Amino acid sequence: MSKNEKEPIFSAKNLKYLTSPFSANNPVIVQILGICSALAVTVQLKPAIVMALSVAVVCGFANLVMSLLRNGVPSRIRIIVQLVVIATLVILVDQVLKAFVYDVSKQLSVYVGLIITNCIVMGRVEAFALGSKPWPSFLDGIGNGLGYGLILVIVAFFRELFGAGTLLGFRIIPESIYASEGGFYSNCGIMLFPPMALIIVGCIIWAHRSWHKDLQEK
Amino acid sequence: MSGLRNIVDKLKPTFSEGGKLSFLSSTFDAFETFLFVPNTTTSKGAHIRDCNDSKRTMSVVIVALLPAFLFGCYNTGSLVGLEGLTAFFYGLVRILPMVCVSYIVGLAIEFYFAQVRGHEVNEGFLVSGLLIPMIMPVSTPLWMVGLGTAFAVVFGKEVFGGTGMNVFNPALLARAFVFFAYTPSMSGEKVWYSDWTMMGAQVDGVSGATALDQLATGGQMQWSALDAFLGFIPGSFGETSTLAILIGAVILLFTGIASWRTMVSVFVGGLAMGYLFQAAGVTTYPAWYHLIVGGFAFGAVFMATDPVTSAQTDTGKYVVGLMTGALAVLIRVVNPAYPEGMMLSILFMNALAPLVDYFVVEASISRRKNRVKTVK
Rounded to whole angstroms, how far apart are CA atoms A128 and B177? Predict the structure, then answer.
């Protein structure tokens, strides 16, 4: 590509920034980042989805802002600047959640605030945004946020389905087969505990690496 | 016997390399070595060989489990008002589906992984498969037994690399899974009595707390200490009779399969902790009650002594044993949510055993180093 020719907004290269974190470079199951919140907010599907979107927004805009500022920030104080940017974004997200989905915001409690400490956000800013142009940085941030969210949603799907028999609050497993109603089934209480989320994440990693043979360590 | 050997020999080429069913070779190998002591020898170096390989070891453990199993059958029947042989057959019919489910699910997974990984089928599940039903309440639904078994075999064993590599005792892991996943089916008053109406059993409204529950809440139990020792109390299928378990312990110790160090120190640790609580006035019943109620004896004899998950060094066995016993009593007395602490304490000490071993080995190394210095 010559220097004067403008790169299309959704070129193959740019799209790759967006899509590679979904599978081959997933922040949770390949880089093993952001596990703590993946355990904490995945008891139900709805908070998991809200959390996923929040992280995607914070991650995308943090990358965008830091990429714009990257030539003006002395590298000595860059961590502080990053923290200020990320914290501002998190507060914005928190306020929006409180205003529009108050009940979910209450369920997520401190974990919205803890997005600041999510390794994925700062990791992408440090590793990508400080050395890249704004648009690829933004796509990279959104992609990583959604890649993280994808795992969150998968984990929450299994935990809510088997732990409570519902999905997004709607009953999936019929009442009639429960032991209390004369059937045989009961909810798997261990699904509500964080350790089970870790085991589900482990299973996803297992399945993913069986499929992506190049990720297997020798 | 030789007829069976001939059949096996005839079938062998089909399953060996190049044969029609060679992809099932590890399955065939498993059955062959289960029936006959393999005639292969190691190819490298000199080894002292004992004819007692791990399959034979497992068979002895199964024999040691039989007294507790047979008594469990009788007790299940006698708890619902039956007597004599009828009680025994009632319990046998009641428990067999659980045993079958546990073996079928566990072995299916073991065979599958052995086939996929191309190694021989591990024999460890022979014991786990019998232990799992024995440490669950007799009325546990079969699908829970199956699910717990599957969880234990996949996440307790296969992810670590199969038999001999597991960190936690698989049978206890199955129980722990079912306990935390389906707590109402594993504790409370209803579950300890069988609910099958057959052979004239009176199951209507039969329920009651275990001796442990009663001790934890009221400080006394409705049975005499002798009944608790002989096992005529409600509880998990195989755990009630301390006498039958001790017969099993004698078999294990006589054949040298289980470590007496672990076994004795678990009992000593539990007893010491029990006396401590008694002296402090926390518990009002005699300390040795802890040893005869609940799963203490069963855990000490068959679970804590697991050669894979227990400590490997002699000193380590004392330490882990003492702590297992003490911790079990500690959980029983201090934590009102868990009247039975044996499962949790063994699993916890399984996790700590490698650490204890590490310190024992380090201490030994530094002791020897000091000796070298003083000689100089």
Answer: 42
Do B130 and B27 have their domain in common? Answer: no
Taking CB atoms and an 8 Å cut-off, how many pairs form between chains A and B?
Answer: 19
Exposed / middle / buried, residue B202 (Cβ in 10 Å: 0-12, 13-18, 19+): exposed
* Domain final position from B201, B230, B246: B201
Question: Which of B139, B164, B134, B161 is closest to B149 using CA atoms?
Answer: B134
The amino acid occupying position B243 is: L
Nearest CA in chain B to A203: B155
Residue B69: pLDDT band (50, 70, 90) is very high
Quick one: B246 and B174 in the same domain? no
| pLDDT higher than 60, residue B242 | yes
Q: How far is A188 from chain B (nearest CA, A)?
A: 5
Residue B44 covered by a domain? no
Domain that holds residue B13: 2-35
Number of helices followed by number of strands (H, E) in chain A: 9, 2
* B288 in A contact zone (CB under 8 Å): no
Q: Would you state the torsion angle of the CA atoms of residues B35, B146, B108, B104, taken in this order, to the nearest 10 degrees?
A: 40
**ipTM value:** 0.82
Interface contact flag, B182 A184, Cβ < 8 Å: no
Question: Do B243 and B185 lie in a common domain?
Answer: no
A191 and B181: CB-CB below 8 Å? yes
Any residues with CB less than 8 A from the CB of A16 and at least 6 apart, and which?
none
Verify that B196 and B322 share a domain, yes or no: no
For the stretch A41-80, pLDDT in tens is: 888 899 999 999 999 999 999 999 999 998 888 889 989 9
Q: How close does chain A come to B148, measured CA to CA in Å?
A: 11
Average pLDDT of chain B, as a whole number = 84
Question: Do residues B191 and B229 share a domain?
Answer: no
A147: number of Cβ within 10 Å: 30
Distance in Å, alpha carbon of A12 to nearest chain B alpha carbon: 38
B188: helix, coil or strand? coil
User: What residue ranges of chain A have pLDDT lower than 70?
Assistant: 1-6, 218
Tally of domains in chain B: 3
Both B365 and B219 in a single domain? Answer: yes
In a domain, B246, yes or no: yes
Whole-number pLDDT of residue B45:
64
Q: Do B155 and A199 touch (CB under 8 A)?
A: yes
pLDDT computed for residue A1 by the predictor: 44
Residue at B219 is within a domain: yes
CB B304 within 8 A of CB B266: yes
Question: Are B277 and B376 within one domain?
Answer: yes
pLDDT in tens, B76-128: 888 888 888 888 888 898 899 999 999 999 989 988 888 888 777 767 788 88
**Taking 90 as the threshold, does the pLDDT of residue B341 lie above it?**
no
- Out of B159, B181, B184, name the one closest to residue A190 (CB): B181
If we measure between CA atoms, which residue out of B125, B123, B121, B101 comes closest to residue B111? B121
Identify whether residues B179 and B289 lie together within a single domain.
no
**How close, in Å, is residue B180 to chain A by CA atoms?**
5
